Amino acid sequence: MPNDLTTARMILRRWREEDRKPFRAINADARVMEFFPAQLTAEETDQTIARIEEHFDRYGFGLYAAELIETREFIGFVGLNVPGFTAPFMPAVEIGWRLACEHWGSGLATEGAQAVVRYAFETLGLRGLVSFTVPANLRSRRVMEKIGMLHDRSGDFDHPRLPEGHPLRRHVLYRLYALPGV
Ligand SMILES: CC(C)(COP(=O)(O)OP(=O)(O)OC[C@H]1O[C@@H](n2cnc3c(N)ncnc32)[C@H](O)[C@@H]1OP(=O)(O)O)[C@@H](O)C(=O)NCCC(=O)NCCS
User: Ligand 1 in contact with 35 (CB < 6 A)?
Assistant: First the structure.
């Protein structure tokens, strides 16, 4: 069983049945899904949770369910993922985040991501991480920058799951390397 990660305000943990309902609401919210091709149906959210849990079983790490310590509320995810598509930067481990918009703007994604980076480098021994999004997703790019990632312009790519001409096809690639000896 992978470890839970604890931050000042959150526990990052494996998923529970009671996360399903609030995660369905997050994925059905147009504000949260602004930079994704579509909002998710309840069934698609259930499939997403199943894929995340399979990923944990396969790799021992994944996209952690984020729970606020103070209220025990599930607010989304922060964690690691091996992308399931081919791209020039693959193989790689991605760091990613998605939070309920009531909780945006108070540093929670950055706080969770910093804990995930430490875990990835110090415990898992990964040597690097990538993150990617559409150029217009400035909130997410800001989180990438705040955790020390750099935009690798030579790695920007067209997402292979989206058709040519789709407005969300172009993606920016960010990288973070573990320093030798850390
Ligand atoms: C991306 C996301 C996880 C950020 O969560 P968060 O907890 O609000 O992030 P933080 O508070 O740690 O940092 C957000 C930063 O973006 C900045 N920001 C917010 N809106 C912005 C905007 N419109 N333009 C530029 N920067 C913006 C904030 O000011 C903050 O930076 P600062 O600390 O330097 O002021 C959240 O917005 C989200 O879930 N979005 C939808 C899902 C998504 O797009 N996920 C990423 C897919 S790649």
Answer: yes
Q: Which residues contact 149 (CB under 8 A, 6 or more apart)?
A: 129, 131, 174, 175, 176
Residue 99 CA: nearest ligand 1 atom is 39
Task: Decide: 107 in ligand 1 pocket, CB within 6 A.
Answer: yes
Give the global pTM: 0.97
List the residue whose alpha carbon is closest to atom 20 of ligand 1: 139
39-60 pLDDT per residue, tens: 999 999 999 999 999 999 999 9
